[in-house]
Amino acid sequence: MAELKDLEALVSQVRRDIVRMVHAVDSGHPGGSLGCTEFLVALFNQVMEMRDTFDMDGIGEDLFFLSNGHISPVYYSVLARRGFFPLEELRTFRKINSRLQGHPATHEGLPGIRIASGSLGQGMSVALGAALAKKLNGDPHLVYSLHGDGELQEGQIWEAAMFAAGRKVDNLIATIDRNGQQIDGPTETVMPLGDVREKFEAFGWDVLSLKEGNDLQAILQTMEAAKKRTGKGKPVAVIMETVMGHGVDYMMHTHAWHGKAPNDEQLQRALAQNPETLGDY
Amino acid sequence: MKKYTDQGKQDTRSGFGAGLAELGRTNPKVVALCADLVGSLKMDEFISENPGRFFQVGIAEANMMGIAAGLTIGGYIPFTGTFANFSTGRVYDQIRQSIAYSEKNVKICASHAGITLGEDGATHQILEDIGLMKMLPGMVVINPCDYNQTRAATLAIAVHQGPVYLRFGRPKVPNFTPKDQPFEIGKALLLQEGSDVTIVATGHLVWEALVAAENLEARGVSAEVINIHTIKPLDEAALLKSVAKTGCVVTAEEHNYWGGLGESVARVLTTHLPAPQEFVATRDTFGESGTPDQLMEKYGLNNKAIEKAVLRVMEKKS
C-alpha cells in the first residue's frame, strides 16, 4: 500500500510531465489532464489490482478504460510512472512515429491501452463489454472507467447507462469528471447537464458523490466505498467534482486551457508551482 | 465444369442463423448480441442453446458495437446482429474507433442488406454499406451468395482474427453451392469457365450471373462466372487470370456503383490489366418499396440486366 506522501509526490511529478509534454509539441489537453491527476494517480497506484505484465485480455486483474481520450497526457504519464513503458517515451507524445498518439490508441501497441478513445461517448459501452467478459470468465476483478462531464451529452452514454442497470452490470465503477467545463465554455451554458447524480440514479445506478475530486484522501475513501458497493446488482457511478487545470493557478476555473499548451514563460510558472519530486523524464 | 442447380430456395439470413447455432455448440468463446431483431437475424437457436452467451441490447446499436468491442477484451468473439443499415451507417464511428482502429475481433453480421429487403423501403434498404465498410483499414468484407455459403462464411469468420463485416439478405433465393464447400476468406470461386467475358458477381447476384451465362450460351457467348464472396481482401489473382483470358468484365452486385465491388475490380484492372468493364449495380439512387423481384427488375439487378451488360461490354473489346 502506497503512503499518502508518496502519492502526493507522484501527483506533483505527473503535473510536471503533463505541462512539459503539451508544451513540447504546442498542442494537447492540459486542463482536464491536470484536473484528473489525483484520480488517476490514486487509481493506478492504490485502488486497482493489477498484474505486473500487460496483456490485452487482462484476466485476473482490474481494468481501466479512459473514455474522454483527450486527457491522454495524464494517462500516459501515470502509465509510464507505473512502469507500463519507458519514461523517456513521454518525449515522443504527439510526434511522428510515436506510440503516444494525440489520443490513446491500441494500434501502435502501447502497453496499458486496451481501446482507442477520443471520439467521445464510447468508453462506457466498451467498459460494459469488458465487465461482461469478466463475468463470463468468472473473474471477480472490477472494471473502472472515466468520463468527462461534457461527454455525457453524447447519446451513447445513456444507451450504455440503461444497459448497465438493466442487465445488472455490478462489476463496473464509472467515474464522471464533473469539472463543469468543455471546449466552448461551461457545460451548463453549452448544453446544461442538470443534476448528473439524479440522472444516473433515475437510470438505476448506485451513485456516490465525490466533492473533493482533487484531494487524494477523499478519492481513496470514495473509491474504497465504491468497491464495497459492487456486486450488489447495480452499476456504480462516482460523480467526481474536480477543478479543470488544478495545480496550475492560471489554468484553474476556466475552459481556456482545455486544449491549449502553455508558452515558455507559462511553462516555467507551472513548473514552479509543482516541484520535481521523482525526476523529470 | 459443374453446372449448379437450385436445391430449393432459402434465405441467406437463415444460413447465418444455422452457422451461429453451430458455433454455439463448437466454440465456447463465441457470444452474440442483438439490437431487438432476434427473429429477423435467425438467432433464436443460438440463444435458446446458449442463453448465457447472448446479450439483448435493445434498440441501441451504438452501445451494441461498443459492448462487442469490450467483450473481445477477455477473449470472447462477439457476433453482432441487426439490419445492414443499422450495422454500418448508423454506427460508423463506433465501428471505426472502437472496433476497426482498435483492431478488435468483432464480427458485424448484417441482414436485410440491399434492395431485396423489399417493402420496408429506402429507409431500411442500404446500398452503401459495402463502400462504408471496405474503406475501414483492416476490415474484411464478405457478401455470400446463398444459404450454404452464408452458413460456411459464418463458421469461417469465427476463426479469422480481426474485424469482419458479413452481409446477407432477407428474401428466399436459390441455394445452389455445395453444402459442405469450405469457405476460404479472400478466395474467389470460379463457378463456370468461359472465354468471351468475365462476370464477377457477389451476393444475390451470383445466381443471376449463372442464369445470365446460361442464356448467353444459347446466343453463342461463352461467359466465365466468378463468385466473389469476399470483397475485401479481393482475390486479385483470380480476377486478373480470368480477365487476361476474356479481355472484358461485368461486375454485378446489389449495391450502389459508387463504392461497391465494381469499383474494387476497376482499381485492380486499371492498375494491372486495363480492360472494358460494365457495372450491374444501382446508380447513385435510393431504393423504394416493392417486392424483391420488382425492385431487382426496376433497378437493373437481375440476370437480364447482366446479359445486357455483357453484350455492351463485348462491343467495347477491340
From TrEMBL, chain A:
Keywords, sorted A to Z: Thiamine pyrophosphate
Domain Transketolase N-terminal: 10-268
Cofactor field: thiamine diphosphate
Top-level taxon of the source organism: Bacteria
Pfam families, per the entry: Transketolase_N
InterPro entries per the UniProt record, alphabetical: THDP-binding (IPR029061), Transketolase_N (IPR005474)
Family the UniProt entry places it in: Belongs to the transketolase family.
Protein name (Swiss-Prot/TrEMBL): Transketolase
Native organism: Robiginitalea marina
UniProtKB/TrEMBL annotation, chain B:
InterPro entries assigned to the protein according to its UniProt record, in alphabetical order: PDH/Transketolase (IPR051157), THDP-binding (IPR029061), Transketo_C/PFOR_II (IPR009014), Transketolase-like_Pyr-bd (IPR005475), Transketolase_C (IPR033248)
Residue intervals of the Transketolase-like pyrimidine-binding domain: 10-175
SMART domains in UniProt: Transket_pyr
PANTHER family per UniProt: PYRUVATE DEHYDROGENASE E1 COMPONENT (PTHR43825), TRANSKETOLASE-LIKE PYRIMIDINE-BINDING DOMAIN-CONTAINING PROTEIN (PTHR43825:SF1)
Name of the protein in its database record: Transketolase family protein
